[in-house]
Amino acid sequence: MEREQPSRLIYLNNAASAWPKAPGVVEAVAACLALPPAHPGRRSALTADVVTECRQRLAQLLGVPSPERIAFTPNATHALNLAVLGLGLKRGEHVITSITEHNSVLRPLAHLADRVGVRVTVVGLDEHGDLDAEGFGQALQESPRLVVLNHASNVTGRMNAVGPFFHQAKAAGAVTLLDASQSLGHCPVNAPEVGADMVAFTGHKGLRGPAGAGGLYVAEHLELEQVLVGGTGVRSDLRWHPTEMPTRLEAGTLNVPALAGLNTALRWLATDGPAFDAQEKQIAEALRRGLRELAGVQLFADAPGMERLSPVSFRVNGWDVEETGYVLEQSYGIVCRTGLHCAPLIHQAIGSAPAGTVRFSPSGATIEAEIAQALDAVRRLVT
Amino acid sequence: MKILDRCKLEDCFDGSAVYQYEFADPWNITRIKALARLGKLDYYADFPRPLFRVASARGLFVKGLAGTKLCRVIFPRTDREETVQHFEQAMSLLD
């Protein structure tokens, strides 16, 4: 995915959806659509079982032994809903989550809080910007059934050190759910090592596959209640939806073309991912450093020494964040994201409430000339 | 300037009113300068695609690119209908 010349559009919105996709993804999706559909698991002479292969690659990536414990979903939001709603939480039961979460976690929990009476504790950040370990410890005293944490903030790019929190939570008897929407593909996400009983992910961000394919890993010792049931294409003589994983959580036709694309992206990631990620880190740091040097630009959650992914959140003096995004895109051809980024709670903690931030999220495909152009555009806004 | 179309745009905030307007004629420098009647006008002629923005005392924010037939308008939460009428009437008198 080497590029030397800037494209007409400078794409700095990879935290929303990666672009360009991994090499071969477009062709894999097209090839899948061009062939007669074959049901996954019912092998066809015409098509390789890309779904099975994709599951195997993901299991390897997540460090888990059984690919069948990964259910495919249309996206991470769907996966998180299956996980949160599938635990069958009852009135008065307790859930712990964090202020850094996306609405894909916060809204299912709000739904359970308001309609079922589940108690939700939202852990904040400490003075260093880390998850508040003391607050988390206090919340653990209230016997949580579930702890949901994201691996990396989609607003600040900051990684949450989830391992110690999850191991404590498991010791306290809770089920642990990791939202790896931002991190998978960018950094190791080893479910057993970090103590995650479940991992929700999407295929179109760090994995650089197409939109429409995500998934949920569920550890062997845990069986979720089925939230969605219906057609499976197999064992149609049963009155009830099959209970074995992954079919247990996969109702309806899978998005096989998207999974074919994701499978190709995973193949690329296994060989070229580390170099791509190293390039992304370098580019992101150059961007962050450049923004930091601009008078009139305020960076959020920019303390040194943080382990972080590429997103950088900022604001330009004299320009509303929405206006900044409009100018950058319309006048300079720079695609970025502005506002709350679907993570409304974190803005109180990082000082960007109520309007939110402008977010640049470059990738390993972003080149230095594009970063220079983006920095120049921001500089011209403040001068 | 004759308004051809007005469509609502969504943003991060419930209850906000962001609209894109399409006009029959493009924003030339005369029309852009005339926007100063609405409020404080900034014009950035040196941007790759020159941009204008207006902030009015009524809480109305307008922005767009010179040479296009579009602009984006953010209306305030209070007195919204009156401000919409005020803006659209001002546009009709712009030429």
Describe the structure concisely.
The complex is a heterodimer of chains A (383) and B (95). Helices cover 36% and strands 14% of the residues of chain A.
Plain-language structure description:
Chain A is α/β, with parallel strands linked by helices. Chain A has helices spanning 25-34, 50-62, 76-86, 103-115, 133-140, 162-171, 191-194, 256-292, 321-332, 346-350, 368-382, and strands at residues 10-11, 70-73, 94-98, 119-123, 146-150, 175-179, 198-202, 214-218, 297-299, 312-316, 334-335, 337-339, 357-360. Chain A is built from 11 helices and 13 strands. The radius of gyration of chain A is 21 Å and the shape is globular. Chain B has one domain (3-92). Chain B is 20% helix and 37% strand. Chain B has helices at residues 29-34, 80-92; strands at residues 3-9, 17-23, 40-44, 51-55, 61-65, 70-75. A 6-stranded antiparallel β-sheet of chain B has the order 1-2-6-5-4-3, covered by helices on one side. Chain B is globular. The A-B interface holds A 320, 322-323, 326-327, 330-333, 339-342, 356, 380 and B 11-13, 18, 44, 46-51, 53, 61, 63, 65, 72, 74.
Q: How do the strands and helices of this protein lay out in sequence?
A:
The complex is a heterodimer of chains A (383) and B (95).
Chain A: E1 10-11, H1 25-34, H2 50-62, E2 70-73, H3 76-86, E3 94-98, H4 103-115, E4 119-123, H5 133-140, E5 146-150, H6 162-171, E6 175-179, H7 191-194, E7 198-202, E8 214-218, H8 256-292, E9 297-299, E10 312-316, H9 321-332, E11 334-335, E12 337-339, H10 346-350, E13 357-360, H11 368-382
Parallel strand pairs in A: 1-11, 3-4, 3-5, 5-6, 6-7
Antiparallel strand pairs in A: 2-8, 7-8, 9-10, 10-13, 12-13
Chain B: E1 3-9, E2 17-23, H1 29-34, E3 40-44, E4 51-55, E5 61-65, E6 70-75, H2 80-92
Antiparallel strand pairs in B: 1-2, 2-6, 3-4, 4-5, 5-6
